[in-house]
Predict the 3D structure of the following.
Amino acid sequence: MSNIQINDFEIGNTLPLTIIGGVNVLESDQLCSKVANTFVDLSKKHSFNFIFKGSFDKANRSSYKSFRGPGLTKGLHMLEKIKNDFDVPVITDIHEPNQANQVAQVCDIIQIPAFLCRQTDLIQAAAETRKPLHIKKPQFLSATDMKNVVEKCFSFDNKNILLCERGNIFGYNNLVVDMLNFQTLKSYNLPVIFDVTHSLQIPGGLGISTGGRRELFLPLAKSGVAQKIAGLFIETHTNPDDAKCDGPSAININDLDRYIKEIVNLDKLIKAQED
């Protein structure tokens, strides 16, 4: 089993839980600081590894009218501020090959969006930065199809890969998480992350934006953790109903403490069992 080293901790399916947590889109320094500070405090209280996430551009919004983010330059400045202020690793997603090197100068991990993980030029540019890659499984691919993506990364001499499950399209405007996918992804001997937030989406459910089922966060998160995986991907907000992107799937920051307590306790129980 290949583990990934990030700063002073390792990420692996049998290791203590890692949470990639933060905001969907970088709305403001104030929001990012509030979210980062909350996660840092909880990581000390509940003993999990923390990586801050925020997107500088939501290039795949449902409508052209939707807020996309602060852009590359300002967004990286915001992420760098979080990294320095809280002494935590940071991650963001790229959408074009020419963004890879600039993002790699700030971020500890580069995220490949689900819709784009088959784009060879994007994978190559990200892999060649030699940064660890967090690759989301598309809603339209099976877990077995992700082997091709993994081999693509390997061909560009980068084996520092986190594979992320985020549900599959099931009919119209719906996503379903197949729990068997986790075992398939784990069979590639790479750490597996579960993006609970985006698995709660109802794509196009609000017409010009995506709906969500945040009230189902905890049971879904527990189901994923029960598969003995490396970590969770969680997006939160101080007021999800006013979030500028994916608010219906984001959990309220006030719920983080009780949710994470239950999740970490379950993770410890599962990982204490012998396979």
About this structure: DSSP finds nine helices and 15 strands in the chain.
